[in-house]
Specification:
Chain lengths: 103, 237
């Protein structure tokens, strides 16, 4: 493996550690103001929804739908109807692979 | 939402050891999914020139799926190392607001807090959220531990056995990542405000996808959480 790729690995590790450590270092050990509690609680749904749609509905910097989108949508139905995380993932994978095999 | 991973009980009486164990248990389904995800990463990393050891070391010291996938995607598409590292930083930028939210729940001096902050991954962070502005840090550590182990195991399997595994897109393995986050999201939709924040976050991200580098849409989506601020002000007035 080239020295350049090792450089990427080390740089990514340093950048990730700094990002993950920044919040706890800057804001740790003391309570945040009361008004921020509602905002903090909503950070997760906002970020997670963004991760879902960007990974299921975009490709190479443009909006796109395909077999994977259908697989994830069906997984969503399974999850909402009470399926486990693992069942949802298996449905997403099976539907995506099945549609790709058909097309 | 029966798909919800087991939320941490909010009783403050639970011992750190019990919290850690509860986190370990809650992390298992995500650890299994993480194994498949990291297996995909191991295969892709070899295809863009990583050695098996290089891929495993990256999973060990970066341990951030979206950033790792962004790196191999950019290198595979002919992008430079600078662009790859920048994309990883942008993908991981969502850990900034997560770390800020978690910060008050971490005790100790700054080096210890920084070290504890390294245990944040999306699923553990979301599941350890007690919903009142606090986080159960021992639950977080437990949930992350089990996922770290399978992340390394999956990467090693993919990096060493890629030739046997074959084309991960044909196998539909690229659907694992969004389905994984969808399960986490559904578990977070505890009330109407969370639903509104999720829809707003999704719309912000989708609107930005065509115009910004990867990572920015997700970071910008965190602005949707400001809905919580407006609603609190309404309630106060």
């Amino acid at each position: 493996m080239s020295a350049e790729l090792w450089g990427v690995v080390v740089a990514c590790a340093v950048v990730t550690a700094v990002i993950k450590g920044a919040g706890p270092v800057a804001f740790g050990g003391r309570a945040l103001p009361a008004w921020s509690v509602g905002v903090i609680g909503l950070t997760a749904p906002a970020l997670l929804a963004a991760l879902v749609v960007t990974s299921a509905l975009s490709e190479d910097g443009r909006l796109a739908a395909g077999p994977q989108t259908a697989g994830v949508a069906l997984a969503g139905i399974v999850l909402v109807r009470g399926g486990s995380v693992l069942t949802g993932v298996v449905v997403a994978v099976a539907v995506t692979a099945g549609l790709r095999a058909l097309v | 939402m029966a798909a919800a991973p087991e939320p941490p009980p909010s009783d403050a009486a639970r011992t750190p050891r019990a919290s850690f164990r509860a986190g370990l248990r809650a992390g298992v389904p995500f650890a299994i999914v993480g194994f498949v995800l990291s297996l995909s990463f191991g295969v892709l990393a070899r295809e863009v020139g990583f050695s098996a050891i290089g891929a495993i070391v990256m999973s060990a010291i970066v341990f951030a799926g979206s950033a790792q996938f962004a790196v191999v995607s950019i290198l595979g598409g002919g992008g430079g190392v600078g662009a790859a590292v920048a994309a990883a930083a942008l993908m991981n930028s969502r850990f900034l607001p997560m770390g800020v939210a978690l910060a008050p729940s971490l005790p100790g001096r700054w080096p210890r807090r920084a070290a504890q902050g390294q245990t944040v991954v999306d699923s553990s962070w979301a599941m350890s959220n007690l919903g009142d502005g606090r986080f159960d840090r021992h639950f977080l550590f437990g949930a992350t531990s089990v996922q770290y182990a399978t992340w390394l195991g999956g990467t090693a399997t993919g990096a060493l056995g890629g030739a046997i595994i074959g084309d991960i897109d044909a196998l539909g393995l690229d659907a694992v990542y969004p389905a994984f986050f969808l399960a986490l999201l559904l578990a977070e939709l505890r009330d109407r405000r969370a639903l509104v924040a999720a829809v707003a976050g999704a719309l912000i991200a989708l609107l930005l996808v065509p115009f910004t580098p990867a990572g920015i849409p997700v970071l910008a989506a965190s602005a949707a959480a400001l809905i919580g601020l407006a609603r609190r002000r309404e309630a106060a007035s």
